[in-house]
Amino acid sequence: MPINAEYRGPAELPEIIPVFPLAGALLLPRGQMPLNIFEPRYLAMVDDSFRDGHRLIGMIQPDVTHSSSEDRPVLFKVGCVGRITQLAESGDGRYILELTGVSRFKVVEEMTVLTSYRQCKVDYFPFIDDFTARKGESAVDRDALLAVLTDFLKANNLKVDWAGIEAAPNEALVNALAMMSPYGPAEKQAMLEAPDLKTRAEILVAVTEMDLAKKRTSGDPPLQ
C-alpha cells in the first residue's frame, strides 16, 4: 500500500472531512481507488485537502431510496475516508488521482459550510478495527470466494492474473474483489457496512451466486 502517513486510530484523523458523493463507488481500508476529478467544486476540494495538509477525502454513496435534488442528494450514513496517494494533472484541467482507504466512518452531521463541496462531521470509532491491517483474515472462507470468482469469470469470459490472486492475503483479496465488483449501490453499501471481513466476503459470494443463478435460469446477461 503506497502511503506515507500512518493512522493508528480515530484520534489521528480529522473530525470534519470533505465528502465526495459517488454512486457505485466502494472504497475500503487499504484499498486503492482511481478517480477522475473534473467538476470545479471537487477540483477545489482536492486543492483544499493539500492546502490543509491532511490529503483526506471521504467517499460516500448517495442514498437513492430517498428523494433529493440531483445536485445535493441524501447520503448514506456510512462511508470510507481515503488519503490521496497519487495525483497527476491531465493538461486539460482534470486531476487523475488515487485514494488509498484508511477507515470507514459514520456521518454524525453534515456541516453548514461556505465551500462548494460538502463536508461532514464523522465518527470513526464504530469501525476501530479498520486501523488493524488484516483483521479477521483467518475467518474468511477463501475456497468459497475463489470458487465463485472462478464461476463468475467463466460466465463472463474474463481472465485474471491467478498468480497474483493466489499470492494476495485474504484482506486484500476480499476488498479488491468487492471494490471491483459490478454490482449496484445497495450491494456495494452492504459490503461497506459489513461488520467484519468474513461477512463482507460472504455478502460478495451471495450476491455473485444470485447473479449467476439468474443468468442460468433466465438466460439474462450477468450484471455489468
Task: Present the secondary structure layout.
Blueprint: E1 16-21, E2 32-37, H1 40-52, E3 56-60, E4 78-89, E5 95-110, E6 118-123, H2 142-155, H3 162-167, H4 170-180, H5 185-193, H6 197-218
Helix pairs in contact: 2-6, 4-6, 5-6
Class computed from helices, strands and strand pairing: alpha+beta
Question: Which fold name corresponds to the CATH topology of the largest domain?
Answer: Archaeosine Trna-guanine Transglycosylase, Chain: A, domain 4
CATH class of the largest domain: Mainly Beta
Tell me the quaternary state. Answer: single chain
Distance from first to last alpha carbon: 28 Å
Q: CATH H-level name of the largest domain... which superfamily?
A: LON domain-like
Mean pLDDT: 94
Organism: Bradyrhizobium oligotrophicum S58
Keywords: Hydrolase, Protease
GO biological process, one term: proteolysis
Protein name: Putative Lon family ATP-dependent protease
Write structural notes for this entry.
The protein is an alpha+beta fold. The chain has 2 domains: 10-129, Archaeosine Trna-guanine Transglycosylase, Chain: A, domain 4; 137-216, no CATH class. Helices cover 33% and strands 23% of the residues. The chain has 6 helices and 6 strands. The chain has a 5-stranded mixed β-barrel with strand order 1-3-4-5-6. A hairpin with a 5-residue loop joins strand 4 (78-89) and strand 5. The two termini are 28 Å apart.
